[in-house]
Specification:
alpha/beta; Helicase, Ruva Protein, domain 3; Dna Topoisomerase Vi A Subunit, Chain: A, domain 2
Length: about 200
């Protein structure tokens, strides 16, 4: 297998990238100046050394010194009464851009497909329960579940509701869903600010 074929194979493993798009990426790299290709390679090589996972919300952030929390979790102005649970890091970006939410986040690390319950074993279920128990001490009142408006997203919502049932009942927490306002099949990552605002306003 040639280097070009190997690169295509790696690109195909990226989320949402098929064979045709993978080849387009590879051929685009071939048209770039050598200095740009070298810089891209350097950035990729150093990425894992400069980016770390927040020990509270589990989103990736560029590490500044020895910080263990991202800028959101460490911000004293964030509302500690709300915790918004999302599937992946990229779901946080449109919510922050919309400006409707000022609470804290938790990145679940995936979803629970309707027909593949084993995927639940890959999620940060234990970490989510632990962070909810910890946040209760800081005044947590509401947990917002923000998953895609599709069968897998709904199945993940049910899974989390069952997972946190004890914590919710013992601490009288409110569990709501961010979804109304998002069209069926929508993924949070691609929602525009106005759609996010509508979904947040009509959560329930």
């Amino acid at each position: 297998m040639s280097n070009l074929d190997k690169l295509n194979t790696y690109f195909e493993q990226f989320p949402g990238v098929g064979g045709r798009q993978a080849r387009r990426f590879s051929f685009h790299i071939l048209t770039l100046p050598k200095a740009d290709v070298t810089e891209i390679a350097r950035l990729i090589t150093s990425l894992q050394d400069n980016v770390t996972e927040c020990h509270s919300c589990h989103r990736f952030f560029s590490q500044n010194g020895k910080a263990t929390e991202c800028n959101i979790c460490s911000d004293p102005n964030r509302d500690t009464t709300e915790l918004l649970v999302v599937e992946r890091d990229s779901d946080i970006i449109p919510i922050e851009r919309s400006g409707v939410y000022n609470g804290l986040y938790f990145v679940l690390g995936g979803k629970v497909p309707l027909l593949e319950s084993k995927e639940a074993n890959k999620l940060r279920s234990g970490a989510l329960r632990a962070i909810v128990q910890d946040r209760v001490k800081s005044g947590l009142k509401e947990i917002v579940l923000a998953f895609a408006v599709n069968p897998d997203g709904e199945n993940t919502t049910r899974y989390i509701e069952k997972l946190l049932q004890t914590e919710v009942e013992e601490n009288k927490l409110t569990v709501s869903q961010l979804g109304r306002g998002l069209s069926t099949g929508s993924e949070l990552e691609y929602a525009d600010p106005e759609t996010i605002k509508s979904a947040w306003k009509n959560r329930g």
